[in-house]
Structure formats: C-alpha cells, structure tokens
Amino acid sequence: MSTVTMFKPPNYCASCNATELGLKRHGITYDVVVVDDPEGLKAEGFAEFPVVKVDCGEASWSWSGYRHDDIRRLADLFTKV
User: Fold this and answer.
1) Concatenated DSSP letters for 34-78?
2) Per residue in 41-80, pLDDT tens?
C-alpha cells in the first residue's frame, strides 16, 4: 500500500492548491503536514512548496512544487494496484 504525504506552509500556496486539486482529481488519498519551519525540508534538498513524498514500501520518490507529470505517474500507480 502506498502512502502519500504533502508538506505545505501555513499560508496560501498556489502550487500547493494545484497539487491538491490534481491529487483529488485522480482520487489519490494523501495526508497533509503543515510546516511552520521549512529548514528540515531545505536540508533534504527541497527548494519550494509543496513537497510530496510517496512511499510504496520497497520504493519511494518525492518532488517539490507543482508537478503534473508526477501526479499523473502516481495516478497510474494507484490504478494498477
């Protein structure tokens, strides 16, 4: 079973809204974590919100910003399960 977690700031974020809409449109269940201090994510190499982390058990990947291609890839994965 895959888990999807989206990290976003407490204030408005257009890329976060677009990502949430894309995930919802494809019926992808995800958790949201509001990040007050992004330093931990910056230390992991992420430069912008949202940060989406996908854990598929044996494999995982992550991205930052609005990424239609990764949302589509995730939707394809969910439809194959």
Assistant:
1) E-S-THHHHHTT--SS-EEEEE-SS-EEEEES--HHHHHHHHHHH
2) 999 999 999 999 999 887 889 999 999 999 999 898 877 6
